Amino acid sequence: MLIIDGNNLLHTIYKTAGDTESISDVGLCRAVSRLLGLTGEKGEIIFDGSGPPDKSGFDHIANLEVSFSGLSSDSDTVIEDKIRASTAPRSLTIVSSDRRLRRAARARKATAVKSENFWVDLQRQLNRKTTVKEPAEKRRGISDSETKQWLDFFGLEQ
């Protein structure tokens, strides 16, 4: 299970790209969703605050639960609580460059990944070209009986 500190990851992306227009919170969620689709994992991303008034952009994001900490808390506290409450903390991967969260993850033997490293890995995996295996039939060609059928179909003789 992947748990992501959303604002921390966004800040890292903005710092790396040099501008705040490089990706939105919804765009980030869609990118993470695509990665989770490739890896077969599930995840959760937590943002600070109550989020935008219209959260419909976050609808239909597969494999990723999007949540907001609310006005009385922050994402770090919510993630720490999730780490503490987990019955299988070794199966958690926490994505944040925040020392507090990385320390909490290590204390429960969860994996901690810095946001910078996660973003580079995500981009690498999403940009990887997938090779399509060519069917063996393409190399072998069609059988003699199939050839005869096609010749008959088009009214041609051998």
Strand content: 5-15%
CATH topology: Rossmann fold
* Strand segment tally: 5
- Topology as H/E string? EHHEEHEHEHHH
Shape-level CATH architecture: 3-Layer(aba) Sandwich
- CATH class value: Alpha Beta
Number of domains: 1
Give the overall form.
Answer: elongated
Q: Averaging pLDDT over every residue, what do you get?
A: 91
Q: Give, in spatial order, the strands making up the sheet with the most strands.
A: 3-2-1-4-5
Rg of Cα set: 24 Å
Q: End-to-end span in angstroms?
A: 61 Å
Give the proportion of residues in helices: 40-55%
Overview of this protein structure:
By secondary structure, the protein is α/β, with parallel strands linked by helices. It has helices spanning 6-17, 25-39, 75-85, 99-107, 115-127, 136-140, 144-154, and strands spanning 2-5, 43-47, 64-68, 93-95, 111-113. The mean pLDDT is 91. It has 7 helices and 5 strands. Helices cover 48% and strands 13% of the residues. The termini are far apart. Strands 3-2-1-4-5 form a 5-stranded parallel β-sheet. It has one domain: 3-Layer(aba) Sandwich (Rossmann fold), CATH 3.40.50. Helix 3 packs parallel to helix 4.
Short description, anyone?
The protein has helices at 6-17, 25-39, 75-85, 99-107, 115-127, 136-140, 144-154; strands at residues 2-5, 43-47, 64-68, 93-95, 111-113.
Compile the SSE list and pairings.
Elements: E1 2-5, H1 6-17, H2 25-39, E2 43-47, E3 64-68, H3 75-85, E4 93-95, H4 99-107, E5 111-113, H5 115-127, H6 136-140, H7 144-154
Parallel strand pairs: 1-2, 1-4, 2-3, 4-5
